[in-house]
Amino acid sequence: MRWTLTTAVAPVAWGATYFVTREFLPAGNPLYGAVIRALPAGLLLLAVCRKLPRGSCWLKSLVLGALNMSGFFALVYVAAQRLPTSMASIIMAVAPLAMMLLAWGLVGERPGSRHLAGAGAGIAGVCLMVFTATGPVDALGILASVAAMGVSSFGYVLAKRWSGEVDVLASTGWQLTGGGLLLLPFAVLAEGAPPSLDGPALLGFAYVTVVATAVAFAAWFAGLAHLPAGTVGLLGLLNPVTGVLLGVLIAHETLSGRQMCGLLLTLCGVLLGRQTARPHRTPGRTGDRTPEQTGNRPPDRTGNRTHEQTVSPTPDRTGVPAPDRTGHREVVECARGDGPAGR
To answer: What is the pLDDT of residues 185-240, one digit of tens each?
Structure first.
């Protein structure tokens, strides 16, 4: 439950990012918007953890930074500027289902039949949501949102595959810093001088940098390190829910009846996969073996181990225990003062 609640911080913060970007951040500067969001957040986390990558972590940080930060932030910026808050966030609802399928191929977490049925229902709901909109739909905004969902899903599952090598704060800081540095020269070449920022824009960037980036990504990658990718992806449903609520309640956006049906169908698809979120793990690891395979049998009702575990082999005439099946003799500890029982 602790890691579930921690991970849920990320999609809630991201759902609010669509509204903040659309209402407060300057339009027409997606690359600079991504750089301003990623680079300060990465430097902030590096100042906290005070660690630099070593060896292969340099390359992995650049790859993950390009997927999870550079490409994702720029595409989300475009989508948030060209689409209503509710529609941009609902398209991202397909991300949990995409993560399940990618986790199947990359980390061996095979989804069950309910996962696949949920994927079909979720995609159908998103299509119903997008293609029955009451107003005009911006094709470039739809394409940017779908591309952002794809690259981020692949990057998140890849981050899960490489998790465990370093702590979460250091890895997140490296990704954000690397992604921001990769995108900076493209922003200078394509968009020229940085945009001028007024008071609301500074406050908006402060939110997306600290809350929706540094804090949110640290929580998200912590969840990926401790929970199955499918479970983490399903928590991403809070992203479109937050976006829809903010769009309807604050931005006064409206949803048609068919769009509401699409949203409900997407919810049903994700909940259908949520019922069997535990992955099918590949056997062979020590943590997946049965007690009989590891030799550590559970205690009986009295709290004692079974007879085979507590009774030492019968000693021969010399008083030395007979060898076991491996050919090694077992060391017997008596109840004298030199054994654990006598201490």
So the answer is: 999 999 999 999 999 999 999 999 999 999 999 998 888 888 877 777 777 777 77
- Which class for 156: exposed (0-12), middle (13-18), buried (19 or more C-beta within 10 A)? buried
Contact 231, 224 (CB under 8 A): no
Counting runs of H as helices and runs of E as strands, what totals does the chain give?
16, 0
d(C-alpha 279, C-alpha 339), whole Å: 44
Tokens of 276: 């069997």
Q: Using one digit for the tens of pLDDT, what is the confidence trace for 265-294? A: 877 876 775 544 444 444 444 344 444 444
Q: What is the per-residue burial (b if ≥16 Cβ within 10 Å, else e) of 111-144?
A: bbeebbebbebbbebbebbbeebeeeebeebbeb
Q: Radius of gyration over alpha carbons of the chain, in Å?
A: 26
What's the start-to-end Cα distance of the chain, in Å? Answer: 40
Tokens of 118: 């949920």
User: Tokens 């006598």 belong to which residue?
Assistant: 342
Residue 28 backbone zone (phi > 0: left; psi -120 to 50: alpha; other: beta): left
Taking phi over 0 as left and psi of -120 to 50 as alpha, with beta for the rest, 284 belongs to left
d(CA 267, CA 124) in angstroms, rounded, equals 11
